[in-house]
Amino acid sequence: MTSADIEQLYREHQPTLVRWLARLVGCRETAADLAQESYLRIAGMDGLKTVDHPRAFLFRTARNLAFDHLRKTNTRSKTVEPLDDALDVPSAQPSVEQILLDRQQVDLFTKTLEALPDRCREVFILHRFHHCSYDSIARQLGISKSTVEKHMIRALQHCRKAMLEYEASSR
Q1: pTM higher than 0.90, yes or no?
Q2: CB 26, CB 65: distance < 8 Å
């Protein structure tokens, strides 16, 4: 097809083609884009000397482009959530209430540890925060493993009592 043939095809069928495509895709602007793409595709085809039914060829090309567009749109709508739905996604950041509760618990824990006797607190910190074994703590502090165990029991009981009192006062 020559450029003159394509121009004649455009003049004769452009309004009809756009209306027909608009009914297929549901949007006049998209239909106009698809019609334009149809003419460009036909113009870009090499070796296409004669087409027996140019109108039918134009409409077939436009229909194929419209179906491709609808397929892509349908796939996108299944995989891309609307932005409004993104507002319902929970944030990775803790709420203000949670931050305050966490601070209160840290303060309580700090005060609880401060209330322990020095050696008991030292044993607890070495075991829980520095991940030292009872044997290692006993060697480090020059006390028996049994004494380390007794300090840990005392510290854990003290912490548990403080947490139970806190939970009771929070209700």
Answers
A1: no
A2: no
